[in-house]
Amino acid sequence: xxxxxxxxxxxxxxxxAVLVFIPRYFKPGSETGLTGQSFQKRCLVSEGCRLTTxxxxxxxxxxxxxLPKLEPLDVEVLLRGLSADRVTMEFFGRDMPMGLxxxxxxxxxxxxxxxxxxxxxxxxFCTVDKDMTxxxxxxxxxxxxxxxxxxxxxx
Length: 155
Known about the structure:
By secondary structure, the chain is of the alpha+beta class. Helices cover 16% and strands 46% of the residues. It is globular. The N and C termini lie far apart (56 Å).
């Protein structure tokens, strides 16, 4: 009988944590003190993905460009005119979100030129749609600023 009470208490605590913290992750705003901007752009993976805004440029490179499923994908992000304390990315289906699996991109040492971040991710396998259109969500955090860029990936 006591085990069921402990399990119930544990499940309740997890649900409360999810309800409190998940909305802050997806919608930065006045509650967290963060401000943000969001962009969306289509790109051809073999040519690299690039977004240019006023005074900054974000470039995403993914290898191999054929985006094989369930295999490691080398991801590079170059930032020009934009600083970052933390950079994360995730892949998900455009027409069928398949769960969130963000992964970190780590800053590479460089003294000149753009800031370079690298990481390894992968695409999941979809049994329903073998021709899934994949999106790459890039989240760049710097101080109280959050920039989110979603690239629609074309192979």
